[in-house]
Automatic annotation (TrEMBL):
CC per GO annotation: cytosol
Keywords assigned: Oxidoreductase
Name of the protein in question: Flavin reductase
Keyword Oxidoreductase appears in the UniProt entry: yes
Amino acid sequence: MENKNKSILIVLGHPNLNSYCAKLAETYSEAARISGYDVNLLKLKDLKFDYNLNFGYDKTVKQELEPDILLSQSLIQKADHLVFVYPSWWASMPALLKAWIDRVFLPGFAFAYQKHSPFPKQFLKGKTARIIITMDAPTWYYKWFNRSPGVQLLKHGTLEFCGVGKVKVTYLDQIRFKNEVQLKKFIEIIKQLGIKGN
């Protein structure tokens, strides 16, 4: 039985708030909320922050964290389950989502390097995640020819690196070839995920 007390953060990584991805994020959010979960929907396009990590992780130079970056970190800390909704562009993710990851998943917040070890201290343990990715290519092409770079980056290179466990992926493929009925079937799939808080 699902824990209806858990908090879910949905991150919309598409810069167009009228996109199909936006509709998917809204669908998941509404279904989860109706099911009784504590839900927050973060639309990255609405946030105001410098897209550049100007000094990398140089401790001698401080880059101020804007209110929307601090808000993002607070929502991540609060959440038990993270849901990312974004399109595959050039087999990866929109620049908006990558910029947000660069600015939010910082040392001291999401992880910490350890001396003499390639493995970090992980500060996001106990959380789970779902990646919902849309694409024009078939899933098999994305996985076997492109080798899933966008998913690899987010799932392994970011979330699991910081301690998030059980990162599941939902691939919604060949979007530009789908008719209205088929697109509605994808919406229903996401609705069911929202209902289950999965």
